[in-house]
Amino acid sequence: MLRPDYGLGNGWLHRIASTVCRDERGRILVHRRSEQLSRFPGLHEVMVGGAVDVGESYEQAAARELAEELAIRGLPRLLFTFINRSGLSPHWLGVHEAVVPDPVTPAPDEIAWHGWLTESELHSALLEWSFTPDSHEAFSRYRAFRTAQS
Predict the structure, then answer these.
(1) Which of 2, 14, 53, 114 can bridge 31 by disulfide, Cβ–Cβ 3.0-4.6 Å?
(2) What residues does 97 pair with on adjacent strands?
């Protein structure tokens, strides 16, 4: 059986903590990555997140990333993890959810633009805009998770 921090075979996969941010009205925060970032510059994302450090939980990493990227303090709720094969290499992706205040204060070196979209607007944007490779699968799984919880 695979542990959430152990990769296939004998190799270790890195872990990423990501958070879908909603406002009080249920809209989802979407942002465009800064052009200065080394990975996926200028692409849109549905989630805020980053690597989980050794000895750090998914929740701790998600909270740290929210603080770094949006200046938000709080502990997002871990919903699920899965092996994400999109992107540069396979990795464990922990998907969280947090209700965050509007307005947010994005870090300009990380986020070039942000906006709040309804799920319908986001569905259209996913078809029309350029998103990071993991945004499509992670958001699809997130929607399925929320539907199953309803």
Answers:
(1) 114
(2) 20, 77
